Amino acid sequence: MGAVQPSSRPDKEKIRNPEGLGAELLETLVKMAPTKEEELKLKDYRGEISKLGSAERFLKALLDIPFSFKRVDAMLYRANFDAEVNYLRKSFETIEAACQELRNSRLFLKLLEAVLRTGNRMNVGTNRGDAKAFKLDTLLKLADIKGIDGKTTLLHFVVQEIIRSEGAGSDETAQNHLDTMQHKEKNDNVQKQDLRIVAGLGRELASVKKAAGMDSDVLSSYVSKLEVGLDKVRTVLQYENSNTRGKFFEVMKLFLNGAKEEILRVKADEKKALLHVREVTEYFHGDAAKEEAHPFRIFMVVRDFLAVLDQVCKEVGKMRNGVVGSARSFRMSASASLPVLSRYNLRKGESSDEDSSSS
């Protein structure tokens, strides 16, 4: 049993008064809690107190306070409560923001459309040649599909197509520079700017990358831990009687009422966040039930893809002529089927850039 330094020893009044101790010292006290056998020996000790070690004397003094270590548990829970609630709230806010980013990112949706069109172009004449959607898992396969040169991948081609289509919207900017630079130099600058836009998708989906590092089971266990801790506080308050009444019980009663409301709000935030995850999963994958065991997997897929995309953008930027090839110049094995049925649909009425440029 470790000794506590005299300067950090709380007196009996501070144990009775939950305002007087910090979380760090409370954690130390919790670790010092004696076993049942040690507690009985200390309570039954009738010898000279001076013959006990400093830690034993300290514990014996604490044990004179009714339910002292149960009080310490309750005080530690209260000391950590706000930080744990804030962590959960920020986590659920991040998850909701991640869902919004996936649904509303124009560049991400444009990338998905480019992948879909490219896949359909590759599959012309097959039963997969007129797909309307695909699962996000497919994004991770793009870097595995090689061009005829054996070096560039389908993702290189998709990035090039997005840069080209983005550049089509940059004509006004290009026209403003027409009098001060040669056409080729102007075009190169526009392409570099558009490449930076594509490479910046990771910043646009920053919350998605954060959410990918979270675990729904862990967050759920933290919420449950808050509820269990609150039950312990209720249990301690039941020990109150005419002999134990004091500031500890007054403060804890006030805390209990506020904490109950906070936990209800946290649980509501959790429910709303998970509902949004389910909705965005159904939007992109069609059947959220298949992802119930790992509901945040959709964020992990996008995070892993963004890492690959960042590397490909760097490689495309180093290419002299910036030309990768056409969609039909890529080999595709039967096991690497690109389009897969999902609820993600190409917006109606949009013409295919791929069709107009690859013929």
Give a brief description.
With about 350 residues, the chain is an all-alpha fold. About 60% of the residues lie in helices and about 0% in strands.
Describe the structure.
This protein has 359 residues and is mainly alpha-helical. It has helices at residues 12-16, 23-31, 36-44, 54-63, 68-104, 106-122, 154-168, 171-176, 183-199, 201-204, 206-212, 216-237, 247-285, 297-318, 353-357. It is elongated, with a radius of gyration of 31 Å.
Indicate the CATH architecture of the largest domain: Up-down Bundle
Give the class from helix and strand content and strand pairing. Answer: mainly alpha
The name of the CATH superfamily of the largest domain reads Formin, FH2 domain
Mean pLDDT: 75
- What is the CATH fold-level name of the largest domain? Methane Monooxygenase Hydroxylase, Chain G, domain 1
Shape: elongated
Largest sheet: none
Count up the domains. 2
Helix share of residues? Answer: 55-70%
- Low-pLDDT windows of residues: 1-8, 168-186, 327-359
Please tally the helical runs, counting DSSP H or I stretches of 4 or more residues: 15
SS elements, strand count: 0
Element order, helices and strands? HHHHHHHHHHHHHHH
Percent of residues in beta strands: under 5%
Q: What gyration radius follows from the Cα positions, in whole Å? A: 31 Å
How far is the first residue's CA from the last residue's CA?
80 Å
Level-1 CATH class name of the largest domain: Mainly Alpha
List the quaternary state of the chains.
single chain
